[in-house]
Structures are given as structure tokens and as C-alpha cells.
Amino acid sequence: MTRRELAHWARQPVEVVVGLAFPVMLLLMFTYLVGGGRGVDGDPTEFLVPGMLALTMAFGLESTMLAVTQDLNRGVIDRFRALPMVPGAVLVGRSAADMLQSVAALAVMAGVGYAVGWRWHNGAGAALAAVGLLLLLRFAMLWVGIHLAMVAGRPELVTAVQILVWPVGFLSNVFATPASMPGWLGAVVEWNPMSATATAVRELFGNPGGATGSWAAEHAQLLAVLWPSAIIAVFFPLAVGKFARLSR
Fold first, then answer.
1. SS3 assignment, position 89
2. Which phi and psi (to 5°) does residue 191 adopt?
3. Strand locations in the chain (E)
4. % pLDDT > 70, the chain
5. Cβ(219)–Cβ(197) under 8 Å?
6. Cα gap 104→97, rounded to integer Å
7. Regions in the chain scoring below 50 on pLDDT
8. Radius of gyration of the chain, Cα coordinates, nearest whole angstrom
């Protein structure tokens, strides 16, 4: 199933390139045009790039959601049911291919970030831990997308569902510190799962984080593990259960 998804990308390279280019365009836009890192003491680029790495883990889910809904509507799932295979392999194969694409996206974003002046300062071990937290967030978001795709059922509804990702992404500390926001908004932002991951990877990379001294900011690395784990614990069984019901 994983090879099948990778073969689709090989036949449709434009889709892959667009998926990799979109977060790069956002990074360059916020670095040079819009401005990012408001409220940060230090280099705003070193604040912005780790946040954009976290935001990248939420983008691109529409390709996974479209693939799932298209398989459902084209009868591909029915053909798979006639084969001697574990039914869950369809979802696991799709998620494995998506995670490979996420690794490529992180590599591209890190390379562009390095080119615009971002650096990490805490060694290879901490950097690998940061990458692990980013991929954990992606894995959690992926199962949310798979479940919502099966709930939506049709490719034309995927765009409407994908819009839900934007509030989660932008209501975070990716572009600005919570201290630079109104008090109530800053509190909401600090408890956003994406904010936890962004703050945690900034700490691991040794980049400025605009710490506020709150419990969420002081325990960002713990929350960066707990939030995705909780999301996976909820949406993985929901997705598997929904798929089992669709396959009957």
C-alpha cells in the first residue's frame, strides 16, 4: 500500500512539488514581506523558522484526504476487500507514505531556513529530538485528516474540511509570541498543540522562544508529547472503526 501511494506521487510530481513549495513560500513571505517574530528578543528568523516547521506538519493533509475519499468513491476499497490482506493496511500504507513526504518537507524547509539565516545551536541529538516531535505532531494530524476524510466521504467536501486546519495553525505562536497578544488570546494560543510543538522545538534547537513563564511554556516539551499522543489515542481508533464500517 505504501508503494502504491509513492507510485502515485511519481506519476504526479507536480502535486508533490506544490506541496513542498507552499510552506517555503509562506516562510519567505513572513521573513521578507509580512514580518514574523513579533515580541521576540533576538533574531526573528530563528524564532520564525521552527514555528514554520511545526506549521508545515499541519499543511498538506488535503492530499491524504483527497486520496482516501477518491479510493472510497472509485470502488478501490471494494477491490482491496477481495484481496487476502489486512484491511487496515490501506490506512497504514497511506499514513506511511505521508510520513515519508513529511520528512522530505522538513528537509526542504530546514534547508531554506538555513539559507535565510536560521541556525540550530544545541547539537545533533537535540535537533533529532526536535524532528521527532515535529513528526509526532504530523502523525497525529494525519489521523485526524484520515478520519475527517471518511466522514466527509466525497472529494468536493475535503476543501471545506481542510479550512479547519487554518485556525489551528494561525491561532498559535508560530508567527508571534503570546506575550504580544491580548491576555485572553495569548492564553488560548499557549495551549494550542501546535504552540507546544513550536515552543519545544525552539528550545531543542536553541532558538529564541519568547517564553512567558506560564506552565504551558515551561512544560512545552511535555505537552509536545502529550497533545499528539492524546489526538492519536482519539482519532486512530475512530479512523480504524470508521474504515471497518465502510468495508462491510
1. helix
2. -95, 5
3. none
4. 92
5. no
6. 11
7. none
8. 19
